[in-house]
Known about the structure:
The structure is a homotetramer.
Chain A: E1 2-5, H1 11-23, E2 27-32, E3 37-42, H2 49-53, E4 58-62, E5 82-83, E6 89-90, E7 96-100, H3 107-120, E8 124-126, H4 143-156, E9 160-164, H5 168-174, E10 180-183, H6 191-197, E11 204-207, H7 214-226, E12 232-236, H8 254-261, E13 266-268, H9 270-274, H10 280-289, E14 294-298, H11 316-334
Parallel strand pairs in A: 7-8, 7-14, 8-9, 9-10, 10-11, 11-12, 12-13, 13-14
Antiparallel strand pairs in A: 1-3, 1-4, 2-3, 5-6
Amino acid sequence: MIIQLEPKLNDSTKTDVLQAIKKIGYKPSPVNTQFGNYVVCIGKKDFDIRAIGSLPGVRDIHYVSDDYQLVSRKWKVERTAIDLGDGVKIGNGAFQIMAGPCSIESEAQVESIVQHLKRCGVRVMRGGVFKPRSSPYSFRGMGLDGLKMFSAVCRANGIKLITEVMELAQIEPMYDYIDVYQVGARNSQNFNLLDELGKVDKPVMIKRGISGTIEELLYSAEYVFSAGNERLMLCERGIRTYERASRNTFDINAIPILRDKTHLPVIVDPSHAIGIREFVAPVALAGVAAGADGIIIEIHETPEEAASDGAQTLNYEESALLFKQIRAILDVQQA
Amino acid sequence: MIIQLEPKLNDSTKTDVLQAIKKIGYKPSPVNTQFGNYVVCIGKKDFDIRAIGSLPGVRDIHYVSDDYQLVSRKWKVERTAIDLGDGVKIGNGAFQIMAGPCSIESEAQVESIVQHLKRCGVRVMRGGVFKPRSSPYSFRGMGLDGLKMFSAVCRANGIKLITEVMELAQIEPMYDYIDVYQVGARNSQNFNLLDELGKVDKPVMIKRGISGTIEELLYSAEYVFSAGNERLMLCERGIRTYERASRNTFDINAIPILRDKTHLPVIVDPSHAIGIREFVAPVALAGVAAGADGIIIEIHETPEEAASDGAQTLNYEESALLFKQIRAILDVQQA
Amino acid sequence: MIIQLEPKLNDSTKTDVLQAIKKIGYKPSPVNTQFGNYVVCIGKKDFDIRAIGSLPGVRDIHYVSDDYQLVSRKWKVERTAIDLGDGVKIGNGAFQIMAGPCSIESEAQVESIVQHLKRCGVRVMRGGVFKPRSSPYSFRGMGLDGLKMFSAVCRANGIKLITEVMELAQIEPMYDYIDVYQVGARNSQNFNLLDELGKVDKPVMIKRGISGTIEELLYSAEYVFSAGNERLMLCERGIRTYERASRNTFDINAIPILRDKTHLPVIVDPSHAIGIREFVAPVALAGVAAGADGIIIEIHETPEEAASDGAQTLNYEESALLFKQIRAILDVQQA
Amino acid sequence: MIIQLEPKLNDSTKTDVLQAIKKIGYKPSPVNTQFGNYVVCIGKKDFDIRAIGSLPGVRDIHYVSDDYQLVSRKWKVERTAIDLGDGVKIGNGAFQIMAGPCSIESEAQVESIVQHLKRCGVRVMRGGVFKPRSSPYSFRGMGLDGLKMFSAVCRANGIKLITEVMELAQIEPMYDYIDVYQVGARNSQNFNLLDELGKVDKPVMIKRGISGTIEELLYSAEYVFSAGNERLMLCERGIRTYERASRNTFDINAIPILRDKTHLPVIVDPSHAIGIREFVAPVALAGVAAGADGIIIEIHETPEEAASDGAQTLNYEESALLFKQIRAILDVQQA
């Protein structure tokens, strides 16, 4: 159950509401975000909803049968749009392409990709500076200095950027240089990290765990939201199954299911979803046709020479063609 | 390695070819289909290809590095089209919608759906008369009598029909009443059934096993082809994974991968792939966008009353809308 | 709900019982096996159990909440033992080792293994003559002639034999030469085959499907039982998962779970469960420690030269040691 | 390739070794642990091993074909034993039982369990104070104050303790109060956490990821080892599969495979592996029979009232019986 409070509330009114909730046998968790003040109430008892609804300070009450609450569309039917500024929005009808290399490698690389994105009308660049790697001996990214350079080039060109945060201690130093924090698949249930990202007023995109369920992804989002940050997106990037013909199995079913269960935007990552360059395009188009709110995709001037993930990365020509095909399908959907 | 023989060959010439193959250390399997005579040669030794290529009766030799051979696109690059007659083709640019109920229930039901299909311009009806069911106490279908009725209604209306065959002994009695034999997911590796379907000159659609690999599906097709039947289609219908939010996980990756590996048409079954009525349409559109050659989908006048699979079945209004959306995406792809 | 009928019943008494069941809104399925006459009643309505229990001809009524019925331990608490004759029993405290090659290759091979089994005190030999193979070009077994030879050697030495049946048409010709029909993993849901095996009075061992659930395995057993054959065993042989370090993932959990849910004996197949020769022994011992009623294991005089599955096959020395270790754990369990 | 250096080495000698490694085209990573100084060299070129082996300061060179290196048994054949002090060792023949509640709840609870463990001769207690929970609204553990109490009771009774660390910032405050840091399944690839645990001289037990591969678990261990901490154990706790009859699927195959691939001790967690109280014992015994070096198991005086995981927790009577059965199997193995 979610209680929406009036925007400005004095402490004693708020205390009265919390007391009333406890009295009916529910456990209240106050949540204050950029956009509102809520109390999430966990419990199962029957009670007279008017006893709470008529209290001073209570604007609205919603009963949510799911265990996750604030991210549920049973509470908030209207779809959320994430506004990155300068007219770049994601969700609720606004589709965004986010493209870039797996790893940021050099200023020349970033400059080249930024120019390609501008030519293609793409507004958001992806690129990793902190790289989670299975082996401790692999390249782990350019780190914060790489991010500063990446950010400077993007800002000089009006391009927004999304990059992965791996650790609590990185959140604050990254803050000034990014537009969206990405939580990677391996950190999808790093609850301390999620809690901390809830305290920051910057958009967060959470990738589904390597074998995470759709429900777990929603719970992970609930962590961030309930800690105070409503500016959230979810990303389907393929799951681990027995099939070995592709890197992951793209769970395309997750797109309509997530869009039914949550008001948050749903992004697809076709690069990781299949992991094979020549098949990224059909899989990307499938994601768009299934109703995704955006796409995040790996591109590189010369994929063969990429520092990581080259085997699933498109070059400029391939990506330019794909962007056109994506827009053609979006046109059909909106017709 | 596949050796294509001249169409009409006397026995001694053929024997000479087989001897020559054995001599270079390969195991020859002669294959005679509706369309050609081949020898599939299994082995790993190096040899001078001219020693075989120059033999009388040999038209062509293809080296195929995959373990499956005749279904491989490394041998036959041009895509196969299956011709059901009366202008109904599947594959190589021809897209077909196959729609109908999970189970054939009555003549009135078949008549009603056939009229709906005609209104929508759909040329192929699906419907089960032999039903594989987990529990022995469930409804197992109307059987051969049901098929005869189903067939009579379809033929009177110019509609082709596809239905599942579960058992060797059913192949012959079904022959006169069907246009495509469907091999169900649970029989995807019923090798005796596949062998026997190779001896019949009717198209066969093989569904991927419940947790079958893409490679196993290709091998199953190789069984039918190598037993003599080239008129084959493959069907992706979702695989079993840990995710419980949908009935199966639709492996959309399989579509571009199969289309790369084999010349056979690739069909998608969105009904089983997600198993939830309100999400069948986005998943179907994803399949089309990913490049499928056809779609097989469960529809019913009143899904709530269907004898089986009602929870994943579209009604007439929903299906008519979906067919339009499918055609819109096909138009974009061909533009 | 299972109604156990009196052993000898005239038709009109039986008809009266069936009528009474329909009257209370249940669907009756009469089942006649080697050992009893039952009516399985499927339905959900409430009724006065005495209305049925007091009818002439009714010996007993059991309510079974599972969807499978006759194989459930909620009905038959006492564990079933399968008697192969000559003192060879499986289940209800009697543990059996079944060992032999993947494929029967020659009379010399069978003779050698039979002697090894006799030296080790093993009473049952396994060996395939009809082999399901992914590729149509692989060796598919020695067939019925091989079985006749295999059977003759076993019978001359007091050894029982178990072998796979792949097809309805094989059941009758195999009947005189075998002691247990094995249903392979790929045929675990071949319902026509299961139905037909229900009509034969010989023990049947059903392997779990390659990615079959525990519940599906119980349903497959219900097919055989409800068609008339109570002499049934189940076999856990590993399931397909994402893990690639072993051939399959041995679901050891299935052993206590199956033993809780069904009265039928539960066998483990460590050879397929891990698929790596040097690790077969620890996995076999784990199966015994978890409570299995028997083990089926691949052995060969020279595994390196086996016609199939050599990589997971033990030689005589390895298997003799394992049999000793198994018996040591059985001794601890019975202490 | 692993180069073991002499224990005390001046900087210039070390620099010379690193230079020589770079010269042959390998990338050297110096590793200094509690027990030794190594250089891990990543590369693929051929070179004359004597060119490195004869350098001053080089004690030994081992070629390791796996991608993980320091945890590989190809380098260190002898099994590692972890010494917790006071005669409590794990690995290389020393088997340990670790038992306790999912969550630490109160001093009375800890006191009661400690007394039970002492009566049973168990030397290590488990218990969570930082709890990873899917939902942000669930109980997240007693935190550091709970740990201090837990630790005080254990130390007063000569019991060692293992508890989960979720976050880098927790490592240092926990240090004085624990004997083993546990890395939970959801943090199995939290590389920053693993790196940091490599800098601490306390044993670490890493649980396999919820759907982690065996190889990924070894890489995670390589992170800790290569950051400086050799005192490591691995834990198999069941993986996520399609099967819903148990909480997880216990990958018993992982035990012999891990023991073949690594010299580190391998622990089994039967409680999470099956998740059903009445079946924990057979699964635990299976783990012991398969060769595990230890077991970690959830027990509680009254599992029905446990703050978390009650459904998979044994009571005192059940656990005392299980401990006896475990020791009986250990006796057989050592006979």
